[in-house]
Specification:
Belongs to the RutC family. By secondary structure, this protein is α+β, with helices and mostly antiparallel strands. The protein is 24% helix and 30% strand.
């Protein structure tokens, strides 16, 4: 496996993500920001949890197209509109909703959550970028 995860005890304990990823592969996979668009054209689901889950499913589709999965991810970046810490429960609910059908394990790969004023389309709450490493 080209990715090893570490969570040193000196860093924030019980984070929902690993603090460090060590990659040894040579082929990089970069998945552009994915949002909660539905592949069948249905409306974007309302609510933060549902949008996080769908965006993660879309990231999984992008990874799979390159022969990768969440086990190969060295970095996730979440951009969330109108973020406040009291939304963490809903955010994590979305992560957990998508975990089973995307093989995303918890804690997640190293991740950043960045609050933003808005995304490129009204009604979108989250956009997710992923970087993976393959042998």
């Amino acid at each position: 496996m080209p990715v090893q995860y570490l969570s040193p005890s000196a860093l924030v304990p019980d984070a929902p993500y690993h603090h460090v990823a060590v990659g040894t592969g040579t082929r990089q996979v970069h998945v552009a920001g994915q949002v909660a668009h539905m592949s069948d054209g249905r409306d974007v689901p309302p609510g933060l949890a549902a949008q996080v889950a769908q965006a993660l499913r879309n990231v999984a589709q992008g990874l799979a197209a390159a022969g990768a999965g969440f086990k190969d991810v060295v970095r996730l970046t979440f951009y969330v509109t109108d973020w406040s810490p009291d939304q963490m429960e809903g955010f994590m609910a979305g992560v957990e909703m998508a975990a089973a059908d995307t093989n995303l394990t918890l804690p997640m790969p190293p991740a950043s959550l960045i609050g933003v004023a808005q995304l490129f389309e009204p009604g979108l709450r989250v956009e997710i970028e992923a970087t993976a490493l393959l042998d």
